[in-house]
Specification:
The chain is of the alpha+beta class. The chain contains 1 helix and 5 strands. The strands form 2 sheets. A 3-stranded antiparallel β-sheet has the order 4-1-5. It has a two-stranded antiparallel sheet with strand order 2-3. Strand 2 and strand 3 form a beta hairpin. The N and C termini lie close together (11 Å).
Length: 72
């Protein structure tokens, strides 16, 4: 099992969703690979929705341009 911290790098407003820089979530996965690219990033999407109430995929921010992934 691996634990990751995913943090937004920059702000963006798209499709009615506002992303602020510095928003972060922590996820635990069975895989050692990047959770943003594994399984369509579903664990990251769920974590941002659970903590901030936003759909990061709808905002178009589910990629390495907007997200920094750090393995803990």
């Amino acid at each position: 099992m691996a634990r990751f911290r995913i943090t937004t790098k920059q702000g963006r407003s798209c499709n009615g969703v506002r992303i602020e820089p510095g928003m972060s979530v922590e996820v635990v996965t069975q895989s050692m690979s990047n959770p943003v690219s594994t399984n369509g990033g579903q664990v990251v999407i769920d974590a941002f929705y659970r903590i901030y109430g936003i759909d990061i995929k709808k905002a178009g921010c589910l990629n390495s341009v907007y997200l920094e992934v750090e393995r803990l």
